[in-house]
Design goal:
single chain; about 325 residues; alpha/beta; Rossmann fold; six-stranded mixed β-sheet; 11 helices; binds adenosine-5'-triphosphate
Length: about 325
C-alpha cells in the first residue's frame, strides 16, 4: 500500500461543477487504484486511478456493467478489501484518510460514523434472530454510547428518519417486506449521522415500484445534507436520484458528467457511456457488442477499443480523463 497524501486538493474531479467544489466536500478520491495479487502471480487491476469529489447534499451515481470495479471501489472506501488487495492513491472522507487506515480507526471513526452503508441485500444484512428494534438499539449504543430509554428514543428517531414504522420495530427480518427491510437497513445506516451514505446496489432484486421508492428515499437523505454515493447498474434508479454520474469501464472512470447532461441532452460523450444508455429498452434496446475485458489482462491502450466503432490507432494509447471524459474520439463538449 502506498502512503497516500492527506491533501485532497486540487479538486480535479472532472465534470465537477463549480457549485460542488464550493459546497462542503465530504469525500475526495484521488488516483485510487486497487490491485489483487493472484496465487499464480498475476495482478487483477480492479480499480485504476479513480478521481472524484462528493459534496454534502449531492448524489453521485457510479454506474457500469457488472465486474467493472464498482463494489471493489466501495470496499476500498470502507476498508473491507481482502488480504490480497493492494491500494494506491488517496480517499479522504470528512477529514480522515481511508486508504492505509488501521482497522481500529476504520471501526471506530469511519464505518457507521463517517460512512453509513446501505447494503445491497438488506434482508441478508440484518441479523435474522434479532428484532429490528433490538438491532437498531444495539447500533445506537455502539455508535453513540447511549443506553436504556435514551437509546430506545434514538432508535425510534432513526426509524422515523428512514420511514420505518415504529409499530414494526418488534418484527424479525423475515417478517418484513422487501421495502421494509430496505428501510430497516437504511435506518441502521443513518444512526451514526454519517456525512457520507454509500449505497451499493440498493435496488437489486426489487420490483420497479420499490426501486423508485428506494431511490426517492435515498434522494431525500441527500437533500437533508448527506453526500450519497450510489453504486448501481440500474440507470433508471441513477436517473431518479443522482446529481452527477460517473461511468466506470474495466476499472477506470471514463466519464463524469451532470445527470442532466447524461440522461437529457446532449447525452454522454464517451462511446461506452452512450452504449450503456442506448442499451436501455426505452431507448434503442441495442446491446454493446462484445464483452468487457479480463481485468487481469487489460490491453495497453483504451480498454473499450475492441468493442468501439470509433476505435483507431490513437486508441492504443490510454486516454486520460480530461474535461470529464477519457476518450480520444469523444463527442464534442457542447460547452466548449
Ligand atoms: N478478492 C479478489 N481477488 C481477485 N479479483 C477480485 C477480487 N474481488 C473482486 N475481484 C475482481 O474485481 C473485478 C471488479 O469486481 P466488482 O465486484 O467491483 O465489480 P462490480 O462493478 O461491482 O460488479 P457487480 O455489479 O457485478 O457487483 C471483478 O473482475 C472481480 O472478479
Amino acid at each position: 500500500m502506498t502512503a497516500p497524501s492527506t491533501d485532497p486538493s486540487p479538486a480535479v474531479g472532472a465534470g465537477t461543477p463549480a457549485a460542488t467544489s464550493a459546497a462542503r466536500r465530504v469525500l475526495a478520491v484521488r488516483g485510487l487504484s486497487v490491485r489483487f495479487k493472484m496465487r499464480d502471480g498475476r495482478h487483477v487491476a480492479a480499480v485504476s486511478d479513480a478521481t472524484f469529489d462528493l459534496a454534502a447534499g449531492e448524489c453521485l451515481a457510479l454506474v457500469g456493467e457488472s465486474g467493472c470495479g464498482k463494489s471493489v471501489l466501495a470496499s476500498a472506501l470502507l476498508g473491507l478489501l481482502p488480504a490480497n488487495a493492494r491500494t494506491a492513491g488517496s480517499a479522504v472522507v470528512d477529514g480522515v484518510e481511508l486508504l492505509g487506515a488501521g482497522e481500529r480507526t476504520l471501526a471506530r471513526t469511519v464505518r457507521g460514523r463517517r460512512i453509513g452503508l446501505v447494503p445491497q441485500s438488506p434482508a441478508a444484512h440484518l441479523t435474522p434472530v434479532r428484532t429490528v428494534g433490538a438491532q437498531l438499539a444495539e447500533t445506537v449504543s455502539a455508535l453513540t454510547g447511549l443506553r436504556g430509554t435514551e437509546a430506545r428514543e434514538a432508535a425510534l428517531t432513526a426509524a422515523a428518519r428512514a420511514a420505518f414504522p415504529a409499530g414494526h420495530l418488534d418484527r424479525y427480518p423475515h417478517e418484513l417486506s422487501g421495502g421494509l427491510a430496505q428501510r430497516a437497513a437504511t435506518a441502521i445506516a443513518l444512526v451514526g449521522d454519517a456525512p457520507l451514505l454509500l449505497a451499493d446496489e440498493p435496488t437489486t432484486g426489487l420490483d420497479r415500484e420499490l426501486v423508485d421508492h428506494t431511490a426517492d428515499e435515498l434522494r431525500r437523505h441527500a437533500d437533508e445534507g448527506r453526500a450519497l454515493l450510489l453504486i448501481t447498474h440500474d440507470l433508471a434508479a441513477a436517473a431518479r436520484t443522482a446529481d452527477r454520474v460517473a461511468v466506470m469501464y474495466a476499472g477506470r472512470i471514463v466519464e463524469v458528467t451532470s445527470a442532466e447532461a447524461f440522461f437529457g441532452g446532449p447525452g454522454p460523450r464517451h462511446p461506452y457511456a452512450r452504449g450503456l444508455l442506448n442499451a436501455l429498452p426505452e431507448r434503442e434496446f441495442a446491446p454493446i457488442p462484445g464483452l468487457p475485458p479480463e481485468l487481469g489482462d487489460l490491453p495497453a491502450g483504451c480498454a473499450f477499443a475492441p468493442r468501439c466503432a470509433r476505435a483507431d490507432d490513437a486508441c492504443t494509447v490510454l486516454p486520460r480523463l480530461a474535461g470529464g471524459v477519457a476518450c480520444h474520439h469523444a463527442e464534442e463538449d457542447p460547452h466548449v
